[in-house]
Amino acid sequence: MKVIGKQRNSKMCIMCGLDNEYGVRAPFYNLEDGSVATLFSYREAHQSYPGRVHGGLITAMLDEMGLRALWAKELSEKSFGVTFSLDTKYRKPVPYGVPLVGVGKIVRDTPKFFSAQVALYDSCGNILANGTTNYMRLAPEQIAENISVHDEMCYMIPDDVKEIEI
Prior knowledge:
17% helix, 33% strand
């Protein structure tokens, strides 16, 4: 699928924060069909049992992709929301230290709420986890005090990713 743009990374988010030493530091891409994708790897520090990623961090990535799916659909990073429900299905163990692909697409969008279908795949295209994320739209100042979206979502690191195989 053709990449039409790249989204910003934050400072401290556990999934995309480039200054978070424990974070995944995942990049996110807007795709031509209005979906979002990420190419990333979990690290050993993200494990639960040896060789497996902690389920909470798998669900956290699905959650992150849901909001970013809205940004891909709108081609803007101005809309925000908070998760009010998330349904995760763990299909296969998720290993760390290997390339993974995440994909998300908005399936419902209203003035107050939005929902996304999200999934993680291994490099062979096997689905490892998937789910539905549901959000309530809120302005950043309704989510956290003293938030400056411009200051937090400050990194735009160019790369050569032009297409993502899903």
